[in-house]
Design goal:
By secondary structure, the chain is α/β, with parallel strands linked by helices. It has helices spanning about 5-10, 55-70, 85-90, 105-110, 115-135, 185-195, 200-205, 225-235, 270-275, 290-300, 315-325, 335-355, 370-385, 395-400, 405-415, 430-440, 450-460; strands at about 20, 25-30, 40-45, 75-80, 95, 100-105, 150-155, 165, 175-180, 180, 210, 220, 240-245, 250-255, 280-285, 310-315, 360-365, 390-395, 445-450, 495-500, 505-510, 530, 535. It has three domains: about 40-110 and about 250-415, 3-Layer(aba) Sandwich (Rossmann fold); about 115-235, Domain 2, N(10)-formyltetrahydrofolate synthetase (2-Layer Sandwich); about 430-510, Roll (Formyltetrahydrofolate synthetase, domain 3). Strand 20 (about 495-500) and strand 21 form a beta hairpin.
Length: about 550
């Protein structure tokens, strides 16, 4: 690995803006953001609906960055910070794989620069200050049963989903039912990811709603005098983190909002900083194109001048078989009919991206079990659906050299960008936005709101929030709200079970079907260890 000062120097970032956190990672000052100089092109990496087999989206992002470097272009990747929950759960680390890694991968995956801990501390401080305000009866009509701000933990822990707090008598807070969410679902994490500077962060934190008074008035973080304290905990967390790829290209890893609960994108400041120093910024959005891509466009890019110049759709032959109904244990066996059937998922999501008038390059992440015929079917289906190119990628095994064809296709695609189209006006009602998403992206016939969701949405509209952006919370395992509906679901009703307001983050998030904001560990959680040199084993 290169020393992090050398990585920053190759970007031509002034040393006064670089704060090393050891030898191989650094914080970058917001003053390093240069909006008046070079403005590199943005390439957004998304994927088909993810499967248990895994599609290699982060690996592709890193490998493409390395491949662009081999072609003589300056490039940087911008990625979310991994969460400890998935690391010890099913997903594992979030730093790519094989010859296309974010380094130092052990430090990036475990604790990193402390940003997630700062978010957790700020979130839980706000919870404590809220409880104290109620206990001291400092806000008339604000009681414990009207507190809506839950606590967070960065571990998947189903035992914390629903709890009773305040046990032990009158010296403690009043009894109430509450629970924990995972840190990546925290509104403060979303706020950090979307804030453009410190004052924007402060402004957003002021709007965070922690509960309501007896007369229905929203109680905010500003009302309980919490904002200054929250800022003190987050002052360095808003600064992007600089690391590198296996081949020494720069990577900015910053913030980690959940992909199916929050908006699933790395920070606004990270993208803006990167594009001031390189020709190409390769960024990634969480889960499949029905979630991450759409949220990147309608929440992150639309309001921050970060519209992509090209989109990469990552897929695998194995994923197409899975969407074609093949069981996980049988994915290594050739199955032409299943590949053809499963390609419906790829075809639909390509058309979704093309509906925004964006060029699509399909990256087929190759596995040893793939046959030439299967790969050619995926290529053909992709091109028929409107992709500008469909190429094989071997960046896992070959690093940047395995992504040359992909990089060449991306460069060509980014030169052909046309004015973007949006599926709805920014000031459309939340209900209208949900209808468009459900019918145009999720393939539903119509939308059904539960009575509870309808009631809460009316209250949000009465408060003046009825035209905010929509951040859909739904399963990542299906285009629909039902994880069992694989491939390309159609002829169904999209069900909204609940709706919540994240006013500081600036969006409304409807909850489709059954969604857990605190995941649980699998039957066999990931086991890590360290060797005699304190190097982490098992990532």
């Amino acid at each position: 690995m290169k020393l992090i000062n050398d990585v920053a120097a190759e970007l031509n970032i002034n040393p006064i803006h670089v704060s090393p956190q050891g030898f191989y990672k650094a914080k970058l000052s917001l003053d390093a953001i240069n909006l008046s100089g070079k403005q590199g092109k943005i390439v957004l990496v998304t994927a088909v609906t993810p499967t248990k087999a895994g599609e290699g989206k982060t690996t592709t992002t890193v490998g493409l960055t390395q491949a662009l470097g081999k072609l003589g272009h300056s490039a940087a990747a911008t990625l979310r910070e991994p969460s400890l929950g998935p690391i010890f759960g099913i997903k594992g680390g979030g730093t790519g794989g094989g010859a296309s890694l974010v380094e130092p991968q052990d430090e990036v995956n475990i604790h990193f620069t402390g940003d997630a801990h700062a978010v957790s501390s700020a979130h839980n401080l706000l919870a404590a200050l809220t409880d104290n305000m109620v206990y001291r009866k400092k806000i008339p009509g604000f009681s414990s049963e009207n507190i809506s701000w839950r606590r967070v933990s960065d571990m998947e822990d189903r035992s914390l989903r629903s709890i009773i707090s305040g046990l032990g008598g009158s010296n403690n807070s009043p009894l109430r039912e509450s629970g924990f969410d995972i840190v990546t679902a925290s509104e403060i994490m979303a706020i950090l990811a979307l804030s453009s500077d410190l004052e924007d962060l402060r402004s957003r934190l002021k709007k965070v709603i922690v509960g309501t008074s007896s007369d229905g008035k929203s109680i905010t973080a500003d009302d309980i005098n919490a904002v200054g304290s929250l800022m003190s905990l987050l002052r360095y967390s808003i600064q992007p983190n600089l690391v590198q790829t296996t081949e020494g290209q720069p990577v900015i890893v910053h913030t980690g909002p959940f992909g199916n609960i929050a908006h699933g994108c790395s920070s606004v400041v990270g993208d803006k900083l990167a594009r001031g120093y390189v020709d190409y910024v390769i960024t990634e959005a969480g889960f499949g194109a029905d979630l991450g891509f759409e949220k990147f466009i309608d929440i992150k890019a639309r309001n921050n001048n970060l519209e992509p110049d090209a989109v990469v759709m990552v897929t695998t032959v194995r994923a197409m078989k899975s969407h074609g109904g093949v069981r996980f244990r049988d994915l290594d066996s050739s199955n032409i009919s299943a590949v053809k059937k499963g390609c419906q998922n790829l075809e639909h999501l390509i058309r979704v991206i093309r509906s925004y008038n964006l060029p699509v390059v399909v990256a087929i992440n190759v596995f040893p079990s793939d046959t030439i015929e299967e790969i050619e079917i995926v290529k053909s289906k992709a091109m028929e659906s409107g992709a500008q190119a469909a190429v094989k990628s071997t960046v896992f095994s070959d690093g940047g050299n395995g992504g040359i064809a992909l990089a060449e296709a991306v460069v060509t695609a980014s030169e052909n960008k046309k004015p973007m189209k949006y599926l709805f006006e920014a000031d459309s009602s939340v209900e209208h936005k949900v209808d468009i998403l459900a019918t145009n992206i999720y393939g539903a016939n119509d939308v059904k709101w539960s009575p509870q969701a309808k009631k809460k949405m009316k209250a949000f509209t009465d408060n003046g929030w009825g035209n905010l952006p929509v951040c859909m919370a739904k399963t990542h395992l299906s285009i629909s709200h039902n994880p069992k509906l694989i491939g390309r679901p159609s002829n169904y009703t999209f069900e909204i079970s609940d709706v919540r307001a994240s006013i500081g983050a600036g969006f409304i998030y409807p909850i489709a079907g059954t969604m857990m904001t605190m995941p649980g560990l699998p039957s066999s959680p990931r086991e890590l260890d360290i060797d005699s040199n304190s190097q982490i084993l098992g990532l």
